[in-house]
Amino acid sequence: MFRGSFVNNFIKTDIRVLLLIGLVCLAGYAVMLQSPFKTMDDEFSIVRNTEIRSLENIPRFFTSTYFKADKDYYRPLVYVTYALEYRFFGLNYFYYNFDNVILHILNAFLVFYLAGLLVRDRKKAFLVAMLFAVHPVHWEAVGNVSGRAILLCAFFVLGGLIFFLRYVNGRRAIWLWASVLCYVFGLMSKESSGVLPATALCFWLMAGRTERDPGRRGFWMFLPFALAAMGYLGIRHILGIVTMFPWPSWQEMFLGTVTFLKGILVYVRIFFFPVDLHFDRGLEMFKSFVAPGLWLTVAAYLGLFWAGLRFRRKVSGLTWICALWFLIELLPVSQVVTTIGVNPGAISLAEHFVYLASVPVFLLMVSAADRVYRWSVEKGKASASVFRIGFAGFFLFLYLLL
User: Fold this and answer.
1) Are 60 and 54 in contact, with CB atoms under 8 Å apart?
2) Percent share of the chain, pLDDT over 70
3) Which of 4, 317, 325, 398 has CA 20 to 30 A from 95's CA?
4) In three state form, how does the secondary structure of the chain look?
5) Are 127 and 98 a contacting pair, CB within 8 Å?
6) CA distances from 292 to 109, 164, 254, 288, 296 (A)
């Protein structure tokens, strides 16, 4: 899947394609540029935060927690961006919003590039990037200044995956170290960047690299990622930023995790029909082991797991990669590692959880649509014009919902 010249296929990108993605994205989010600071996070991390008002405080960002009253977040690079913005623009919210949009556009460019490497088709990659750019599910991450952590995290994770694939193709160590550097920057932007090596490992294994490695490459290529993660955790331990919120019992953890699995169905729905979006969506937890919905959810996922094993040879490599990638990206918010509550008896299903996880979903959507398109045209079931109109209509539908 990853064979071929990296440079010849995708580095010579038509600038007009990137301009179109950027302009469409900018036009869609232009309405948010005049939106004032509006969340509690904005107040704590920007408006009332006197430390961002001097660039001399930048070293302090790397030795303190994100929210001063808590000991659970370590995101110094986010504060660095706020300090730079305050230095040049004060508390003019227009520029903070504008920078969020620019980061989202850059992420859409990276999605186009990464999707191109995975599907080896510029048209499909373009459609995936356009879905990522204009899909309303990303409004929470982009439309709130405090979503900066999510955008920075995605920027470094996407860049890290691209560099990793370049290393796998070209075997030049510089690209591996560039990927590790992106990993480090991602960790200093948001904790969920920690799953980047797992996604890279998924790419590598699903591409069959274990059978073709010459020996000097192999699992050792993940050693720098492991060392970076150990160093990151060591720094957090030294600084005392180690607060976790474990479940009181394994029973509650099980109920919370299965509730989140039920919530994934909500995510699937909003990818196709993105209405009734929320700033912080909550889902009522299953309250006992006799709740009918609990075991229906478990049965549904066991059925999917069985079907995956039963028909594994008929499922394409890209489908496996996207499915595993989606699950890996949701692992940090799956309620297994720690509780993520919005209200007593409920778990969080915030839309920003799927900012990165949406990429494999859009890849599958475009690939599936392409298969249906080719089959229908070959069998004479529908003309190419019908599908083009349908695709354009779906994009317009998403765009109008922004």
Assistant:
1) no
2) 93
3) 398
4) CCCCCHHHHHHCCCHHHHHHHHHHHHHHHHHHCCCCCCCHHHHHHHHCCHHHHCHHHHHHHCCCCCCCCCCCCCCHHHHHHHHHHHHHHCCCHHHHHHHHHHHHHHHHHHHHHHHHHHHCCHHHHHHHHHHHHHCHHHHHHHHCHHHHHHHHHHHHHHHHHHHHHHHHHHCCHHHHHHHHHHHHHHHCCCHHHHHHHHHHHHHHHHCCHHHCCCCCCCHHHHHHHHHHHHHHHHHHHHHCCCCCCCCCCHHHHHHHHHHHHHHHHHHHHHHHCCCCCCCCCEEECCCCCCCHHHHHHHHHHHHHHHHHHHCHHHCCHHHHHHHHHHHHHHHHHCCCCCCCCCCCCEEECCHHHHCCCHHHHHHHHHHHHHHHHHHHHHHCCCCHHHHHHHHHHHHHHHHHHC
5) no
6) 44, 44, 15, 9, 6
Q: Provide the token pair at 259.
A: 């509730």
**pLDDT value of residue 216:** 46
Q: Which amino acid type is present at position 203?
A: F
pLDDT (0 to 100) of residue 57: 93
Task: Give the confidence band of 217 by pLDDT, cuts at 50, 70, 90.
Answer: low
Instruction: Please report, for residues 59, 238, 301, the alpha-carbon distance to residue 332 in angstroms, rounded to integers and kept in the order given.
Output: 28, 22, 19
How far is it, in rounded angstroms, from Cα 376 to Cα 209? 35
Chain position carrying tokens 């003019």: 92
| pLDDT at site 11 | 46
